[in-house]
Amino acid sequence: MTNLIAIHRTLSGKPRRLELSTIWQLILGHDAALKSARTQVASRPLQGFKLGNDEAYKILKVGITSKALEPVGDFMGLSKSLMANYLDLDRGTVTRLAAKDQILPTHAAENVLRLLELDGMAAETFETEAEASAWLNRPHPMLDGETPLAVAMNSFGAQRVKDILLAIKYGGAA
């Protein structure tokens, strides 16, 4: 499965920057409250982009459209079932939200931002997209044999994954 995800991300046809740009356009929309967040995204390279707490708070306050789910899932190489699982929603709820273009529940929107943040950190840490994707989807011994994406389904697990990525990036053991 890991190799399929890496191959998908390499051969998806769209450059990484274009895919991320499309995702952020959906997330940020045209809401006036998100103007500063749009400015932050537009002014910084998307690889390794870290969304600040102020911007994330504003995004979550306004909400994230369910239209972002399919592009995020495609970008991350996650099936609809895995994406629903990661968002802590059942697949039927995800389908219903997407069909009606509804705003995601806050916990699911936080998970979307968390996915994008971890992907950005992994892309910044590893030499290639394929390596970053493979690492996120491969069981890791420091995570009790679970994949980083599986562990990152809550904020505490996500922090463990971030700590490991930082250790890898700056020469620690991981």
Q: What key phrases describe this protein's structure?
A:
single chain; 174 residues; mainly alpha; globular; disordered N terminus
Describe this protein's structure:
Residues 122-171 form the Antitoxin Xre/MbcA/ParS-like toxin-binding domain. It comes from Polaromonas vacuolata. This is Antitoxin Xre/MbcA/ParS-like toxin-binding domain-containing protein. InterPro entries: Antitox_Xre (IPR011979), Xre/MbcA/ParS-like_toxin-bd (IPR024467). Pfam families: Xre_MbcA_ParS_C. The protein is mainly alpha-helical and 174 residues long. The protein has one domain. 66% of the residues lie in helices and 0% in strands. It contains 11 helices and no strands. The chain has helices spanning 2-11, 16-28, 35-43, 53-62, 69-76, 80-86, 91-99, 106-125, 129-137, 148-151, 155-169. Helix 8 packs parallel to helix 11. The two termini are 22 Å apart. The model is unreliable at 1-13 (pLDDT under 50).
Give the rounded overall mean pLDDT. 81
Strand count, sense and closure of the main sheet?
A: none
Distance between the termini: 22 Å
Number of domains: 1
Report the structural category: mainly alpha
Helical coverage, percent range:
55-70%
Uncertain residue ranges: 1-13
| Strand count | 0
Rg computed from alpha carbons, rounded to a whole number of angstroms? 15 Å
Strand content: under 5%
Overall morphology: globular
Secondary-structure element series: HHHHHHHHHHH
